[in-house]
Amino acid sequence: MVDGPVTGKVLPASSAPQMGAAPDEAINQVAKLIAQAKNPVFLLGLMASQTENSAALHRLLETSHIPVTSTYQAAGAVNQDNFSRFAGRVGLFNNQAGDRLLQLADLVICIGYSPVEYEPAMWNSGNATLVHIDVLPAYEERNYTPDVELVGDIAGTLNKLAQNIDHRLVLSPQAAEILHDRQHQRELLDRRGAQLNQFALHPLRIVRAMQDIVNSDVTLTVDMGSFHIWIARYLYSFRARQVMISNGQQTMGVALPWAIGAWLVNPQRKVVSVSGDGGFLQSSMELETAVRLKANILHLIWVDNGYNMVAIQEEKKYQRLSGVEFGPMDFKAYAESFGAKGFAVESADALEPTLRAAMDVDGPAVVAIPVDYRDNPLLMGQLHLSQIL
Amino acid sequence: MVDGPVTGKVLPASSAPQMGAAPDEAINQVAKLIAQAKNPVFLLGLMASQTENSAALHRLLETSHIPVTSTYQAAGAVNQDNFSRFAGRVGLFNNQAGDRLLQLADLVICIGYSPVEYEPAMWNSGNATLVHIDVLPAYEERNYTPDVELVGDIAGTLNKLAQNIDHRLVLSPQAAEILHDRQHQRELLDRRGAQLNQFALHPLRIVRAMQDIVNSDVTLTVDMGSFHIWIARYLYSFRARQVMISNGQQTMGVALPWAIGAWLVNPQRKVVSVSGDGGFLQSSMELETAVRLKANILHLIWVDNGYNMVAIQEEKKYQRLSGVEFGPMDFKAYAESFGAKGFAVESADALEPTLRAAMDVDGPAVVAIPVDYRDNPLLMGQLHLSQIL
Amino acid sequence: MVDGPVTGKVLPASSAPQMGAAPDEAINQVAKLIAQAKNPVFLLGLMASQTENSAALHRLLETSHIPVTSTYQAAGAVNQDNFSRFAGRVGLFNNQAGDRLLQLADLVICIGYSPVEYEPAMWNSGNATLVHIDVLPAYEERNYTPDVELVGDIAGTLNKLAQNIDHRLVLSPQAAEILHDRQHQRELLDRRGAQLNQFALHPLRIVRAMQDIVNSDVTLTVDMGSFHIWIARYLYSFRARQVMISNGQQTMGVALPWAIGAWLVNPQRKVVSVSGDGGFLQSSMELETAVRLKANILHLIWVDNGYNMVAIQEEKKYQRLSGVEFGPMDFKAYAESFGAKGFAVESADALEPTLRAAMDVDGPAVVAIPVDYRDNPLLMGQLHLSQIL
Amino acid sequence: MVDGPVTGKVLPASSAPQMGAAPDEAINQVAKLIAQAKNPVFLLGLMASQTENSAALHRLLETSHIPVTSTYQAAGAVNQDNFSRFAGRVGLFNNQAGDRLLQLADLVICIGYSPVEYEPAMWNSGNATLVHIDVLPAYEERNYTPDVELVGDIAGTLNKLAQNIDHRLVLSPQAAEILHDRQHQRELLDRRGAQLNQFALHPLRIVRAMQDIVNSDVTLTVDMGSFHIWIARYLYSFRARQVMISNGQQTMGVALPWAIGAWLVNPQRKVVSVSGDGGFLQSSMELETAVRLKANILHLIWVDNGYNMVAIQEEKKYQRLSGVEFGPMDFKAYAESFGAKGFAVESADALEPTLRAAMDVDGPAVVAIPVDYRDNPLLMGQLHLSQIL
User: Fold this and answer.
1) What's the CA gap between D305 and A339, in Å, rounded?
2) Which of these, A119, B158, D68, D138, could form a disulfide with D132 (CB 3.0-4.6 Å)?
């Protein structure tokens, strides 16, 4: 067999054309709206977490002191310096600190946001003035009809907007209270998450432990399942595009293939992927690919022997369960049958050391982490971490 | 029967968000390319004929003296003041003055153009630097990969570009010759078109006569057929969006329904529509609509008792004809059976007076004009009007 | 241009393969069901009107004396000898003599019937034993689940079934009353339909007059519209496949193209087509085809200057009308503009002579017949012709 | 959680309607064609292997002594008593004993066959009279236009045909030679297949060993891959519908899910499934299902660490390979990670004892069998087993 010549001209990779910023008069109009607002809030979407846009956003946050929330897809867009004004992420259930800011707001400024990321009917009361900043005009729907649109290069537009803002916002007492409480919950999780000693493990204990290994040098890819909500809400990130996570139309089984793809783009950067046991088995034959490529990937499986999120919805809709229990599987042996390194967390105390050992592996590794989903119903209500921690 | 209440909230009509112009540095880059070019040319597309864009274009043409050609869809974008540098429209067959300018060019600047309007493989030799000015990034294909893109509001971008141009182009001898010859052909048609005395009528005689009635106060809608090419090439227009004409994917039978729609939008403005006899019968029941609405429409039918353009393609592909001959029809009686006013041109001399009489009708009128398509094969070659006139 | 050689092998036309009759034991089972039934009834569908099947059906009707009804598509399947036991056609509204037989029945035998012809939920009470005789197994749905199916060649199956029937049915008093009343209405129409003297004309007057010209030598094609119901119910036919009529999914505008197709199949046989004025205009450019081919077709237009059947449904659903009125048109002039012969009925008395004159034309002719649809609402109720005639 | 009431009427399960046999005269016509033919042959398709049809076929073979071949889908239709006249299966490559019979034939009788099973252009020379026996008329295409069709119940038609045959065929010398040689190859494989001692194993050695475990009490499901061809040609079966195998449009990964389905239908019957290593990994998470259900399934994996059939086609079309090598995998450990029993064949001698041990497992088991595909190119030519054995 012979390698044939490459035929067919490959189109040249031209650099993406740069757009201009939005028109000056429209930017000035938004600056005035900001100056007049009592409770303005930024809602960040996927495009806000592009590297250039995120850098411009940091300057705008610094200049304006306006509080900020984001969809799951904008994870990492807010940097550590502005963290005290970040109310965390919103999505799926309308019950987060960010949701309370949106309800309170008289001005909502969406940056790089698309309605598919978090359904507008969930968060838009219609009482606030709505501003849309993006490269495209708003995809209008009944609950998303912006009053002003700044269409153009996002970074350019944000930079010009920052220049037009002449004083920092003094938070209203209500907004300050929301952000303060959010900050309090973060500290709770940070200080006491590691003390949740039940086994199988509490989701917050696992999130807390993951925070230690997902530092800025690591990329994280997130599958779909109940664990997805715990991570989307409580795992923070300060690097734009550090976290690959979806919401609108995500498929189970994407995390491991995404991880391989992310590693191929930048083989110097370790990738952590995370899924449930159900989602893992839907594409886990790709471990063969990871082993063959010697990809530097650590895959975490939250193991509950079931399709937990499907079960929650079956109970809600049909008041009975069908086809959601499976296993048990020996995921350590499974991983090793492919030639990957396998780990299983076998006690609460073993969680953190096992994760550290698995991070030290150079090449594909898999860790099975038993999880206890008993507190999942709290996710749908006004969960305050003090209820748990 | 009772008019029920209107239910359902209607979304408010917000004004379209304004984009900013393209970034200054990119505009400067294009200005430099223009300063260096020996044979630059503008290629206008559909978006260039929007009113604001067309006005900005006129200033740019005035400032730069760069020659210009356009697709059929940009009809009317070039005004009378710049007419001497307009090489006419291009499309379908690569054999027009505009095509020769494009072949000669070392810099092609596409304004508001989409590849669907005129296939790039037909006109892009790949030898010229390619600039794309539009509201959207280029839809790249193998033969359309711009070197520079100015993405943003077209009028804003053209205005900034015009400000950056500091001297007018001196035409190269070759470009001057192409434009001069084009101008010569226009004069030929103007002076001598009315003397083509054969009956049925020569297409150029009909185009020449139509020019007299399609003044700036009139909107023209054009169906698909052989007559479409004669009109697209030789009927000029100085008002943007005066002519509704397609190219990429046009359907037979659209002209009369288009005309009714255009009249409904602005009932003060007379509409002329034109089709072949085959296309006319595909939607001519809409005469009933025109009569019922008392729409001020004049429909011209070029009558040759056949599907001439289909016949041309059948001969080319199969060397025989099938199913392309029909009629004759009495279109005057046909129109009158609907209650419209009907006319039939019955001699060469009767053409102009009949058209004038039909234009004077207030309400729907139809004129049947026998046409002799014997010279159609010339359309595919390097037709020079001196061959005919 | 040259006629090229015919290339590509044309598949040989083989005669359609013959199926065998249904199995003997299944046929015997149906014969027993017939012997036991008090009120059996045949429901004929499209396949019953194939020539061979229709001939076998005549023998079965003669042998069994079982009453019979049919869908519109089986028009002509029952011959004159068995006409006294034919309750007429059923479809659309469940209010015909045939519907009353089906309600009364303890045994329904469907022959060559498909559920698309007349929705089973409309006629199947579920109280009768259901037999399906066809070339295909039943397309089962909730309201059409036969107890016995005779799958195989229909003529062969009917012949075997006829041989197994040993005595003729004595009609129950209720069945006899239904058939007697139906016969009475037919006679009413026959005797007195011609005396309906209003102008525009009553639908029954037109049906009555059409009956005189649609003799066995003529094929009739029927468009969709209000006139369709009057014809489907009251115009009888004794020749299988004499009438082309649909029900399940018919499109407006089919009658004239169908007529041209039917005439091409057998140019010796005159074709009458009939449509409303709305349906006519949707495909009336085909008059050009008819004239060019010199097709021997008479097209009747029931003229009411509206989309009457659409109007009925708009009123029912929305209690108001929109976009259903049009015209008037001069259909005589319209036809003549194509070179066809045109007629317009201008008084009640002129109906029959005008139809006769138009039938005498050799080639395409069109007759416009003004119709008064004031009695249409009666079609939806238990219309008895004595209410009108 | 509560089991809700079952709502919605379930349609009653009626027994499938029985068709009659084909018409007597058509059957007689085929009987005459048989009486006149020198080299008749039966080609069996999927429907021939339905239980009733297969039983009728056995009688017809006994009565007529006509040689027979079949598509892969008809596996098991020919019983042991008629085995000497069975030329084996045909499909994919036109180079089998059955193909030679079809080339020689002056009469080909297709029973329950559809063109999708084995493309007619591959086997139909057009020289033989063609008969089609099925429940449906032939789906005609350019190379499949039967001269006679017997449409009706297949078993009923075959029984009537058998009654009309009055003497047994005397094989022509050519047909006898083809069948004799085929028989010779079977004996070769039977006697000497077990002596192929290379390791990884020769495909014929594996087929030979599988023949011992796939007795009449076992169902076999076959995935797609190179092994598929070796099995389709050389593994025989005497029970209709014993083997689930496709050809026209088969998907990789079906064997294990098919096996679970087949076992659920009849849990008393052991199921053996077989796939390549590539196909196995595409659906092998279903081992979890098999373990949870305690399904009595033995899955065999032919292991070559590659997509062999894809590689063959890549080489043929592109003269190079891409993306077809993977592994190695430890399939024994893999199976055991699910809780199934795992086996790996580790020497040529171990093959048969390992298969026997795995068959003795009550519940899911997996056997990895290394295969050496070096002789695959012979499959495309006129392979005679004496070249190998």
Assistant:
1) 14
2) D138
